[in-house]
Amino acid sequence: MEIELKPLIDDDIGIFKKWLDKEYIYKRLCPNGDKEKNDWVNEINNRNSKYSYMKHFIVTCNDKKIGFCLYMDCYFEQEYTQEHYGITVGKGCVYEIGYFIAEEEYLNKGIGKIIVRKMEERIIETGGKEILADPDEENIISIRTLLSNGFTKIKDGDYRKKLNITMGQLDINIRFAKTDDYSWLKEHDEHISDNVLKIKIENKEIYVLEKSDKITGWLRYNLFWDNIPFMNMIFLSEKYRNMGIGTKLVKRWEGDMKQMGYKNVLTSTQSDEEAQRFYRKLGYKEIGGFKYVDDPYEIIFQKTL
Q: So what CATH class is 169-304?
């Protein structure tokens, strides 16, 4: 039994409307009648514009369409989130989920638990920190599904799960760049010449973050005064930021430098960049800086290993 979440497309709207008309789904999603049904259809029709902060999926089992699920970034529904859950949230931090299985022969087969887990995996990949759900307390099966997936009941209609994200969950690997990575790095790293890039790959002076055989970030360095490791650049794809992955990448580099016998490392960032907070948090200390032509002031940071 292969369960997949496939982004809802226009061709799915017809079956979604058909599902809404099923008595047990209509009762659950449209308790106040056809107005709520029309609201659901309007949301689906505008999923790529007004409601783009919601992600809608058709659930399939062995390629057969059997249900629907969605998650939304609660940042864009502050009034609702404050009223229902009593919290104010930041962008990309907290998500609410919902789902239903529309084909009766697939009910009570543990598929709901798989759907919730697959949504959780996607939310983790976006950088989410917590998931919310508001099941009807009469829906015992949905509540059991949430609890079995690690949710905690706060009160009736308020179930939450904190996401403790690890590198293992994200299946992310840190390794040295290889010759095969040259084309990708050349395309994405605009601050280095082709020849120097080749040399740094050969000298193992570039680390890459890899997920499912795809590069999602990198770190490169050189030697200042030929004897002090200097981190020239660190970059992570946006959806993997604020998850502790950048810290692990820097720690890996620092650990390797220490094993090689270096006592200190350096890096720098412009004074108008947020990166300086990241470096200070990792124990780097400001030791000076300089002004280069028309660029903002460049701050030099040092850390003793």
A: alpha beta
